[in-house]
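Thread: quick sanity check before group meeting

JM: Hey all, I'm pulling together slides for Thursday and realized we never actually wrote out the predicted structure for the chain we discussed last week. Dropping the sequence here so it's in one place. If anyone has concerns about the input, flag it before I start.
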Amino acid sequence: MSNMSLNRSLGWGLALALVATVLTLLVGFVAGADLKIPGILEMSSSSANDRPATEFFFNPLAPLALAVILGLIIWSAGRARSSRED
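JM (edit): ok, ran it. Output follows.
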């Protein structure tokens, strides 16, 4: 297996980060859950006067940071695997 390039690894990291972000937001909205990840995501739902209300804060830099971290993990795992095969 060839060495995975850094750009391809970052692309996979971005894809995984976007899927994780979308799933987290969908579960939060559908379930009406209170999610709090300080500085990244804060979501709370309540019913006031028979009308549902949702407060929502989302930091768009969080998925980008997650993408970089996941991409570097994928890249380093690929390098470790290819060096072990040599």
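AS: nice. The chain has one domain: 6-80. The beta strands are 35-37, 41-48, 51-58.
JM: adding both to the slides.
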